[in-house]
Amino acid sequence: MKKVIASVALALMTMIQAGAQTTISDTELAQRNINRCMAIVDACWDKTMAGSEAYMYMADTYNTADGSKSGPSDIWPLTAAVEAHCSLLEAIDFARRDDESLYEAEREKYAHRLEVIIDNLDYYRGSYRRPSYATRIRSWQPYAVPRASQKGKADVTGILNVYDDQMWLSRELIRAWRLTGKQAYLDRAAYLADYVLDGWDCWRDADGNEYGGITWGPGYNSKHACSNAPVIQPLVWLAEIYADSDEKTEYNYRDADNKPVTEQRLREELYLDFAQRIFDWQHSTLAHPTGVYYDMIGGEQAEVVYKDGYRQHINTGRPGGEFYPYNTGTMIAGAAELLRVTGDETYAERLNASVSASLGRFCRYSPVILGYVLTTDEKATSGFRTWFNDVLLRGLADAEPYCSGSACGRIISAAQAALDYAYDNYNRGGFLPIDLTGGWGDETVTKPFHQFAFASEYGVLALRLLKRVAEEASVNADVVSSGNRNTSVYTLSGVEVGAEEEVAGSLPSGVYIIGGSKIFVKE
Questions:
Q1: What is the pLDDT of residue 15?
Q2: Which DSSP state fits 181?
Q3: Would you call the peptide bond into 325 cis, given omega within 30 degrees of 0 as the criterion?
Q4: For residues 404 and 449, is the Cβ–Cβ distance under 8 A?
Q5: pLDDT over 70 for what percent of the chain?
Q6: What is the distance between the alpha carbons of residues 373 and 267, in angstroms, rounded to a whole number?
Q7: Phi, psi (5° rounding) for residue 12?
Q8: For residue 141, what pLDDT is reported?
Q9: Predicted confidence band of residue 504 (pLDDT cuts 50, 70, 90)
Q10: CB 3.0–4.6 Å: which of 133, 154, 244, 340 could bond 510 by disulfide?
Q11: CA distances in angstroms from 190 to 177, 195, 197, 303, 387, listed in the order given
Q12: C-alpha to C-alpha distance for 488 and 496, rounded to whole angstroms
């Protein structure tokens, strides 16, 4: 990767690795992050993906000692493979401005693999008809938890599909659409968003207020943090994507008298409205005073009740369960997106409270790297905290421009240091242990789910550094928004909106990067 001009004041990062102190520039570190992301993705592709491209699935576990694997995985772990490829491609695309050779050598390979994985998602897809809180019968084609032997033939009834799986997929399909331009990906992402919103509990209480919240799935009564907050970020993205469109979608709800109503709503308005409503519901229902979030309400699974052809509201009690990093991470990401598009400082307050609480709740001090590391499970097969940490990290990366304290940067730097320590000391053919600073111990089994999470983290960290270098280079080159009207305008997530001259006056409220400077635009 080319080095930026000498006048650019590159931030230097000092890391402790295997007892030696190494100084590395942001540009060099970003390049290394991309290389390591590719190495982990390649190892997963070669060793844990099975079958032909037309009939490919991901193993659930992989034994690093003998190469044996079990599977296929459920849909949720497979979304990590989609995520990792999107994170890698985003970093490669952004790096293109400084390194065309990387783009030319690697981009097509990983874009093709991304398309192969998404095509094989159809083995988890199925059809069914069901009533909801405001509709008697409606046909849907969501994704099931387990994989079927034929595309489109998965059993999605009862508890065999859950809303959070659709949310993770909607997010990644939007990213894949940005990277490939394939309209089918965007259409599917919007379809899944509509399916999820149809699960919103729109029954009203005695005061006329919606109970709100989305159950874990259509076959559950419990309402989880993971079946609500993950859709906030993709809903904001969809609202922006449809901002210049008059496209509408069906919206079903209950009016003040609890009578079912069906109407057509503009996608832009409906998606942004629900992003805010879901954020508010989760904060009012599941927030702990410290800033982290409970796992759920309604831990006891009761029978789903239907009456007169409609699903009924069931009281689900008080919040409970563990505090998982991904449940806080999705709210951090949601707050960042809503702050960006609305400018409402309430989101900044809640974002910073959650970021500060995350340092104490989800991190521990490691004498190995002389800093904090994100805590993990005892064994690779006993939990999912490795991927939960990935969700927290990407939320922090999105929130960093709005963070007022040091906690965000400290956790991100700790994640970088821990990943690098594991990569330098415990790398097994491209795979890392879930205990990044403690190593494998006597464990030989890993999950591709976790490995793709590590790869995605490297991609996220690379993109963060590349954006910082680009911003510094632009500022030092004295390219400011009032100078060159041909300057490109970017969202904080790195999406190019267009030349400033073309989009001036039409940008939705939010923070943008224009000529390397963060500019707040208010309609």
A1: 37
A2: -
A3: no
A4: no
A5: 89
A6: 40
A7: -105, 140
A8: 98
A9: confident
A10: 340
A11: 11, 9, 11, 30, 24
A12: 7
* Distance (Å) of CA 303 to CA 134, 210, 227, 307: 18, 21, 18, 13
Q: What are phi and psi of 341, to 5 degrees?
A: -95, -20
**Are the C-beta atoms of residues 416 and 407 closer than 8 Å to each other?**
no
How many angstroms separate the CA atoms of 303 and 365, rounded? 44
H or E element at residue 467: helix 448-476
- Report the distance separating Cα 176 and Cα 199, nearest Å: 25
Output the pLDDT for position 501.
77
User: pLDDT (tens digit, 9 = 90+) per residue, 196-242?
Assistant: 999 999 999 999 999 999 999 999 999 999 999 999 999 999 999 99
With tokens 């295997």, the residue in question is 18
**pTM reported for the whole predicted model:** 0.88
pLDDT band at 481 (very low <50, low <70, confident <90, very high): very low
Cα 251 from chain centroid (whole Å): 25
Burial letters 278-311, b for 16+ CB under 10 A, else e: bbebbbebbbeeebbbbbbbbeeeeebeeeeebb
**Which pair of structure tokens corresponds to residue 49?**
């993906």
Element (H, E) at 320: strand 319-320
Average pLDDT over residues 308-320: 94
Backbone angles phi, psi at 310, to 5 degrees: -120, 150
Q: Is 339 helix (H, G, I), strand (E, B) or coil?
A: helix
Q: Kindly state the helix (H) or strand (E) to which residue 122 belongs, with its residue range.
A: none
pLDDT of residue 374: 96
Model confidence at 493: pLDDT above 70:
no
3-state DSSP of 401-457: HHCCCCHHHHHHHHHHHHHHHHHHHCCECCECCCCCCCCCCCCCEECHHHHHHHHHH
Task: Look up residue 270 and give its two tokens.
Answer: 């409906």
Residue 303 pLDDT exceeds 70: yes
Whether residue 7 has pLDDT greater than 60:
no
Estimate the share of the chain in helix, then strand, then coil, as percent rounded to the nearest 5. Answer: 50, 15, 35
- The answer to whether the CB of 461 falls within 8 A of the CB of 409 is no
Helix or strand holding residue 480 (H, E): none
Local confidence band at 23 (pLDDT 50, 70, 90 cut-offs) = confident
The answer to whether the beta carbons of residues 85 and 179 sit under 8 Å apart is no
- Cβ neighbours of residue 446 under 8 Å, at least 6 residues apart? 61, 62, 64, 380, 431, 433, 434
Q: What is the CA radius of gyration of the chain?
A: 23
- 15-45 as b/e, with b when 16 or more CB fall inside 10 Å? beeeeeeeebbbbebbbbbbebbbbbbebbb
Residues recorded for the chain: 523
pLDDT, tens digit (0-9, with 9 covering 90-100), for 270-282: 999 999 999 999 9
Residue 6 tokens read as 């000498």
Contacts of 498 (CB under 8 A, 6+ apart): 488, 489
Q: Which of 38-42, 188-192, 367-371, 390-394 has the lowest mean pLDDT?
A: 367-371
